[in-house]
Design a protein that fits this description.
With about 280 residues, the chain is an alpha/beta fold. The protein is built from eight helices and eleven strands. The strands form three sheets. Strands 4-3-2-5-6-7 form a six-stranded mixed β-sheet, sandwiched between helices. Strands 8-9-10 form a three-stranded antiparallel β-sheet. A two-stranded antiparallel sheet has the order 1-11. A hairpin with a 4-residue loop joins strand 3 and strand 4. Helix 3 runs parallel beside helix 4.
Length: about 280
């Protein structure tokens, strides 16, 4: 038997399942694979979902979520974590326990509250627990404008308002925030990365005309986690992840999948799985 001298860059998605394949853990796994990482999952909820909307949500019991996380981390190990749909306070508390218990230090929190279709995916009473328990533990929080508005209590109504809203989100305890401005009007999409130490990075790209935007937020957050797992610092991980998402949107713009909001083309230019040296090998 050939002795092992390498391992993969390992990324765990703790999120909900999208039966339509465009968002949630399905988008995360496609993204991890496309960027050369080994993807794993701990499923928080099942959704009956397609390109038109969400017709049902079935939560996974918290103890079984904990069992999934324990099985993966204690055997395979984790280099970075992406957090997606966390629909109940008990689920949030399991995730907070796992971050502390296993000392998970590269955590991307996508506060999935509203789907592209407009469906509410997080119970209102969960938001307070999410902010209290996970904002301080996450490396970066990645809300879109609808989610940011729910978190700060008012609309974010222009590019000039991004800085103020980012400061409000940092004041809630986040270590870094990537505030996504894709829902603002204009020919360019402007996002803002704000860190608690005062660093700010504006990222802009030309808007892509496409109906296939389902799972964009899931894909971006999982791409950031993948790049963190590969060893990039947060600003470069965000820039690289954003470039991947923009290209995946462009590659899927002329494809029809379903009758509503279709997915990105996650596999437009897959990277071979990255092999990292085993410690001591």
């Amino acid at each position: 038997m050939t002795p092992a001298t390498y391992r993969y860059a390992r990324v765990l998605s703790i999120a909900g399942s999208d039966s339509g394949g465009g968002a949630g853990i399905q988008a995360d796994l496609k993204t991890f694979s496309a960027l050369g990482c080994y993807g794993m999952t701990a499923i928080t909820a099942l959704t009956a979902q397609n390109t038109v909307g969400v017709s049902g949500i079935h939560g996974v019991p918290p103890e079984f979520l904990k069992a999934q996380i324990r099985a993966v981390v204690e055997d395979i190990g984790v280099d970075a974590v992406k957090l997606g749909m966390l629909h109940a306070p008990e689920v949030v508390e399991v995730v907070a326990w796992a971050i502390d218990h296993y000392k998970l230090d590269k955590v991307v929190l996508d506060p999935v509250m509203v789907a592209t279709s407009g469906d509410r995916l997080m119970a209102a009473e969960t938001v307070q627990v999410l902010v209290r328990e996970l904002f301080p533990r996450a490396t970066v929080v990645t809300p879109n404008l609808d989610e940011a508005a729910l978190l700060v209590g008012h609309a974010v109504d222009g590019v000039d308002a991004l800085d103020g809203a980012a400061s409000e989100l940092l004041a809630l305890g986040a270590r870094a925030v990537l505030l996504k401005g894709g829902h603002l009007p204009g020919k360019d999409v402007v996002d803002l990365l704000a860190e608690a130490d005062g660093e700010r990075l504006r990222l802009a790209s030309e808007r892509i005309a496409s109906r296939n935007l389902h799972g964009t937020g899931c894909t971006l957050s999982s791409a950031i986690a993948a790049h963190l797992a590969l060893g990039y610092a947060l600003p470069e991980a965000v820039e690289r992840a954003r470039g991947y998402v923009v290209a995946a949107m462009a590659a899927g713009a002329d494809v029809q999948v379903g009758a509503g909001h279709g997915p990105l083309n996650h596999g437009f230019a897959p990277v071979p799985t990255v092999r990292l040296p085993l410690p001591g090998a």
